[in-house]
What does this fold into?
Amino acid sequence: MTNVTTPIVGFLAALTAANSSAHAACPIELAAYGDTQSGGEIDFTPTGTSAVVTNTFRMILDNNVVLNGIVMWSSGEARPNGSLMYKCPEGDVTGGELAACTLWNGVIYTSDEKGAIGLLPAESVDAPKTLILPDLGPSLRHSLAYGGSGFSKVPSDVFTLKGCQE
It folds into this structure.
């Protein structure tokens, strides 16, 4: 009688290895997230060599409205403080101009598949399963980008990992 267990075990090991590499972890700087409520998306991009900005992303809403986002970790009580801006002036801007075009500001939290809450990591770390941007929806509903020729679908505060950009 021939032992067929060894070839089957070998086949399963090869299949598992292939499957693992096909679903390799995605670094946060290439992660794409989606919101099921509005269809909004968050796409992270590599930040580059900034000394203060730890993450860069954009939020894409309906009607092709794009909000630009950055994350800077606070000093003292370290927290990843995110900001979403809309149509900010280019170049040297004043604090007032920056405040006028900032639609949301807050700490970005994460959640894993078990529901454990954490803080948004800096680049070169595996992307978390879920992002939580507290009070995002209400802030955007009351922003200058909502209604009229802006976006009409308000996202929730929770975005789920959809995939990894190439």
About this structure: The radius of gyration is 20 Å. The chain has three helices and ten strands. Helices lie at 5-22, 95-101, 136-141.
